[in-house]
Specification:
This protein is of the alpha+beta class. The chain has helices at about 15-20, 25-35; strands at about 5, 10-15, 40-45, 55-60, 60-70, 75-80. The strands form two sheets. It has a four-stranded antiparallel sheet. The longest helix is centred in the middle third of the chain and has 9 residues, at about 25-35.
Length: about 90
C-alpha cells in the first residue's frame, strides 16, 4: 500500500488501495468518506517502537490496521471485525 506524508506530517493513503482492503470500489469508499462513515486514528510507538506508527481505519464493523516502520512502509496489516458498542450491554 502506498502511504506518504503531506507537508503537515499527516499520513496520506491511496484511496483505491484502501477501498480494496474493505472490498469496495474507490467511488464507494469516497461516498462513505463524504458521509463521514470512515474514522481513523494514528498512534505513535513508544520505547523501542518509537519510530513506528499504527494507523487504524474503521468503517462500520470493520477495522483495518497497519504498522508502519520509520520509513512509513507497511510491515504488518490486518482487517478485523469489531463489536458494536450497542452489543456490549
Amino acid at each position: 500500500m502506498q502511504i506518504s506524508r503531506d507537508a503537515n506530517g499527516d499520513f496520506v493513503l491511496a484511496s483505491p488501495e484502501l477501498a480494496a482492503r474493505f472490498g469496495l470500489s474507490d467511488e464507494e469508499l469516497r461516498d462513505r468518506l463524504r458521509a463521514k462513515l470512515v474514522h481513523s486514528t494514528v498512534e505513535r510507538g513508544e520505547g523501542e517502537d518509537a519510530q513506528s506508527h499504527r494507523l487504524s481505519v474503521r468503517l462500520g464493523n470493520r477495522m483495518w490496521r497497519a504498522i508502519l516502520d520509520s520509513n512509513n512502509e507497511v510491515v504488518e496489516e490486518e482487517l478485523t471485525f469489531v463489536r458494536s458498542s450497542l452489543s456490549r450491554r
